[in-house]
Amino acid sequence: MIADQLLVNNNEAKATYSKDKTSEKPKRSIAKSVSWRIVGTLDTILISWIITGTLSLAFSIGMVELVTKMVLYFFHERIWNRINWGR
Question: Rounded CA gap, 72 and 79, in Å?
């Protein structure tokens, strides 16, 4: 979805964005996704550290969570792309 937006012809993108001032440019969406994933992973590491008391284990859990959540989100998005409800 975001990759498709990045590949759109620049003129088409300008026309789309000028029609809908509430939408974001794809680069902003990517930056927000990355920053949110960082915050989420740091939260998981902190909670894991508090629960386990071991920083190395907390980082291991955080890194596994980082990868699995990105993969799950990808499939979540693909499934929602097939659902027409709310469009």
Answer: 11
Nearest to 37 by CA among 65, 9, 5, 75: 65
Whether residue 2 contacts residue 30, with contact meaning beta carbons closer than 8 Å, is answered with yes
Per DSSP, helices labelled H in the chain are 2-7, 10-19, 26-52, 55-82
pTM for the predicted model, two decimal places:
0.64
Q: What is the pLDDT of residue 50?
A: 98
Higher-confidence residue of 74 and 46: namely: 46
Residue 62 to residue 56: CA distance in whole angstroms: 10
